[in-house]
Amino acid sequence: MDKLKAWLSRLPKPVRWISVTVVGTVFLILGLIMLVTPGPGILFLFLGISVLALEIEWARELHKQGMQGLEKLLAKVKERLRRIKQ
Prior knowledge:
Blueprint: H1 2-9, H2 13-36, H3 41-52, H4 57-85
Helix pairs in contact: 2-3, 3-4
């Protein structure tokens, strides 16, 4: 993501904002479609939010909450795996 941020920082603000908005929205729409059809819908939704978080504040907050939830889920899975091994 850092390489993407560095590349985007070279673009003028309006071009950067439009590019991020279009790409993020496309990923969100594809994710919504894939929720009802075969495909990794949740992954595309998260990817869309991640792209939008580069320029949009509400997406940044949603991305932050999603990452915190993912970290909690991974901690629970690791704990259960430790219990199973013992």
